[in-house]
C-alpha cells in the first residue's frame, strides 16, 4: 500500500514516514501543500493529511479531491478535529499522538481501501 503524506512540517512528515515504513507501507511522497498533494495523488493508495497546512485550511478540500479524483483513502491528522468536514468513515488522529495510533489509523485506511478496490473489481460487467 502506497502512502502519501500531506504535512507542511518536515519533522512531523519524516516521523510519520518512519512509522509508516515500519508498519509496512511504501511512501509515495511527501507533500507540503495542496498543489503538491494533488500532483502526487495518482501514485498513492491512501493519504494522511494535516487539516491545516501553510496554505490554510486546505486538508478537507485535499481529501475530497484525492478521494474523488483517485479514490484514495484518507486519514486526517490535526490538532483540532472540529475542523474536519464529514469525518464519518475517515479516521482522524489528534496531535500530539503516538506511533501506534498512526500505524493503527493507516492500517484501517488501507483495509478500507482494499475493501473498496475488491468491491469494484468483483462487480459484474454487462456487455
UniProtKB/TrEMBL annotation:
It comes from the Bacteria. The modification 4-aspartylphosphate is found at residue 50. Signal peptide: none annotated. One of its GO terms (biological process) is phosphorelay signal transduction system. Residues 2-110 form the Response regulatory domain. Keywords: Phosphoprotein. This is Response regulator. It comes from Rhizobium hidalgonense.
